[in-house]
Amino acid sequence: MSTDETKSPDELNYGPQRIDAIMQRWGLENHDLVEVSPEQLTHKQVQKARAGRKLTLKLMQKVARALNVAIWERLPVEEREVYYEYIHRDLFSYAKGYDPDWADPNEAVVQRVLG
Description:
The protein is an all-alpha fold. The protein contains 7 helices and no strands. The radius of gyration is 15 Å and the shape is globular.
């Protein structure tokens, strides 16, 4: 059985991920996630996440937490109660439990907040 270290770069690249589309929809840049993360998230890690480079579970979770904080800080108080916090399987196509037919439960929130 091969490990990640023996796989070719193509086998570790899954293409643009759902997190990229979600960040674009919310108007977020890589720096926004890096800036709010208390976990020393780097620009390079966020870029890898968006581009589809395979991340460890811990890093996927770290990126998801930073994404939620970045969005949360932009939400009006009344929208925070209905905001659905994204988890790693919502954002990465190679995460266990990923659903390709998943619909963003925050779509109505995005429309109300960003118009």
